[in-house]
Design goal:
308 residues; alpha/beta; D-Maltodextrin-Binding Protein, domain 2; 3 domains; five-stranded mixed β-sheet; 21% strand; globular; WH_DNA-bd_sf; LysR_HTH_N
Length: 308
């Protein structure tokens, strides 16, 4: 069988974004180019990689998930090859300053920074966590080179580099009657006690999900951190709505929780990297962006995603 790296990357991007249109936008190509790449690969394989879902994008088949695992391993190996060839006799060193939206930091930064350190051991990384306003201000005033956040929270006039789509999902106490299903709806959850994250933009996003369905949630707790949210949920006191989950299984002092996708179409932001429109990325910041992109292509962030 013969595959081109370009067509393989197009196929992986469609899987990562859950949509041919979103993949085309992220790669700055036409949707027809993505669709043609997928069609060509499926024709060679003799079976479908994706199920097309009208108005909902694409979802990998059982065979497709196995194919994508191998595909991501291949792309990661190819990226490592390109990187090592490019870095022969040319080490990347210096300092990069990264601002990260606080709720995302404990989930994304360990994966990103471990990869950056492994690739560029001489690179010094300074990390700053903050609210949406704080991380945007840090990038705009030059005190941070990059910001990690959600697409719907970042300024529309700056470059945004998407890494994956962050679908909203529900976290419920393990003993909750709804926790045994394959999915849950906002209509089922609206009357249940809800814990919200005490960040202005996070609360606004959450309320917007319910408002889009003419629902009003029953907010009974407000937490300053996602760790507190998860602990309250595990203890059976409330449920919560998140866009990403910890990559490593969490343990709680009391109880446990389960995560279920939200049925239906919902506003699903993309997690990614923002930088100033008028600032050219230097070699150090570009190396970090490249590491993040290659991690996304290799599926490093997949454990953080609850797909619908």
């Amino acid at each position: 069988m013969h595959y081109t790296i370009k067509h393989l990357r197009y196929t992986e991007a469609a899987a990562r974004h859950g949509s041919i249109t979103a993949a085309a936008e992220a790669l700055a190509v036409s949707p027809s180019s993505i669709a043609a790449a997928i069609d060509g690969i499926e024709a060679q394989l003799g079976q479908p990689v994706f199920v097309r879902q009208p108005s909902r994008g694409v979802a990998a088949t059982r065979y497709g998930r196995q194919f994508l695992d191998e595909l991501r391993a291949l792309l990661a190996a190819q990226s490592r090859f390109d990187r090592r060839i490019g870095e022969i006799d040319r080490g990347v060193d210096g300092t990069v300053r990264i601002a990260c939206f606080t709720p995302m930091a404990p989930i994304m930064l360990p994966t990103i920074l471990t990869e950056v350190r492994n690739r560029h051991p001489n690179l010094v990384t300074h990390v700053f966590e903050g609210s949406v306003t704080e991380i945007i201000t840090a990038v705009e005033d030059g005190s941070a080179d990059l910001a990690i956040g959600y697409s719907d929270l970042m300024p529309t006039n700056g470059p945004f580099i998407p890494l994956f789509t962050a679908y909203p999902h529900a976290a419920l106490p393990r003993a909750h009657p709804l926790a045994s299903g394959d999915y849950v709806t906002l209509e089922q959850l609206a009357a249940e006690p809800l814990v919200v994250l005490d960040h202005e933009h996070s609360r606004k996003y959450l309320m917007g999900l319910f408002a889009a369905r003419d629902l009003r949630p029953n907010v009974v707790y407000s937490a300053r951190t996602t760790d507190t949210m998860r602990s309250l949920i595990a203890a059976g006191l409330a449920y919560g709505v998140f866009n990403i989950r910890p990559i490593v299984k969490q343990n709680y002092g009391t109880g446990d929780l389960v995560r279920l996708p939200l049925a239906g179409d919902h506003d699903s932001p993309r997690a990614g990297i923002f930088h100033r429109d008028d600032a050219r990325l230097g070699s150090v910041a570009s190396a970090v962006v490249a590491a993040c992109r290659e991690q996304a292509a290799a599926g490093a962030f997949e454990p953080a995603i609850v797909r619908p």
